[in-house]
Amino acid sequence: MATTTPGHLQERLVADVDEAFPAVVERYIDGLYSGVLRLTNERTAAEDIVQETFVRAHGALHRYTPQRRNELRVSGWLWTIALNLCRNRARDVKRRPKNVPLDSVAESAATDDPATEAIAAVDTTWSKRLRSLADHERTAVVLRHVVGLSYRDMSTALDRPEGTLKSDVHRGLKRLRILIEDEGTNAA
Amino acid sequence: MTSERLTRELTALRTTAPDGLRGRILEATGTACRFAVLDGPIGRLAVFFNDRGITGCAPLEHFDEYVAAHDLGHTIEVDELPRALAGRTRRALETGRLKDLPVDLSGLSDFQQDVLRTTATIPPGEIRPYGWIAAAIGRPGAVRAVGSALNKNPVPVLIPCHRVSKSDGHVGNYAYGPQMKRALLSAEGLDPDAAESLADRNVRYTGSDTTHIYCHPSCHAAQRTKVSHTVEFKSAGDARKRGYRPCKLCRPAAA
User: Fold this and answer.
1) Domain ends where: A77, A100, A123?
2) Which chain A residues touch B if contact means CB-CB below 8 Å?
3) Strand, helix or coil at B20?
4) Is the residue at A107 inside a domain?
5) Is B14 close to A148, i.e. CB distance below 8 A?
6) Residues B14-40 pLDDT 10s
7) How many whole angstroms separate alpha carbon B80 and alpha carbon B39?
8) Which residues on chain A are in Cβ contact (under 8 Å) with B13?
9) How far apart are CA B132 and CA B253, in angstroms?
10) Is the same domain home to A76 and A20?
11) Is the pTM of this model over 0.95?
């Protein structure tokens, strides 16, 4: 009773947007937040983008016909909205160079607690690694491996063929492996 | 680094959204489950509502369990029900009858809705067996399905699933335990022990030898029959064979 299968959720969404919406939020919020956090590298921005994604999705769902809601691939579609917002933000940040991208993922987590500090350190490492990828590779790697999206959903979200996305992920991972090996060499 | 280890570390970057973000989203979209706390017949109740009416009801001590079972996600407590619902809800809790209180069951299947709407017609202090509900909605074979629909009743107490007994007349189980079911019935003036003892003796119906009408034993018409004039029946067939007709209030023919 407590578990909802994706099929069941879609049926609810077709029947009644407002009734189903809290369950939609519950199902996708962690994935969206994890991915957007890795793409923006800033907690407040990630929260704002995830909130705005759901607000826009809610408005759109009300405008859609039940048939369109039935055909929707919710996960990929939510990411279309989220990635647009991420791109808008990246553009705004570029226009206002004072707002340099922060390592606030690490900073806001840094406390005296050694466990949290350890997490923060790993975080900074990964932020740097991911930032050194090309935009399309970083997006593909994050969606595939941090969020856990299927290639089909990624194809919906990015409006690009699955084959292209697979090679983006492949190249992104390869570059990450090289980066990590270099870190090892430099440390030694 | 092996590719498995690399992808494992990337997967480990998955985190959970911060506390409060869910709530802000649901508030911004107007889709959070809102509830107010009210006094019920045997304790306090969280009563959920939307723009169309009452959507749920949970004994406060089972709140978390209820929210998880009904997949409500984020909830927000408000001080009072909206004015259109407040008075009617209070009256429904006092009288044990829904009357004109709007209850929004639109998220449920047609079958569940039929079961719950029929259940809502059982007067306070009376009980009907699962089979009676099944027959009343035109699905006499669906007794088990009725039981399961009632077990998932999102609006317990207000929609009185506690007034539905096992087919043999025993009070039976309840989503929040048989003790709560007995307590709710006692609060309405039904003696659960008396009902159990009739069930133990296999008595399904009682009749009056002056009117020759037979009823569910808890029907308020049957309750008015003097003990000296009360006749007991093991089945509807038994009553009919002895020349009794079904009561038009509690409609035992349906069972």
Assistant:
1) A100
2) 1-2, 4, 12, 15-16, 18-19, 21-23, 25-26, 29-34, 37-38, 43, 47, 50-51, 54-55, 58, 126, 141-142, 145-148, 173, 176-177, 180-181
3) coil
4) no
5) yes
6) 999 997 898 889 888 988 888 999 999
7) 12
8) 34, 38, 126, 146
9) 9
10) yes
11) no
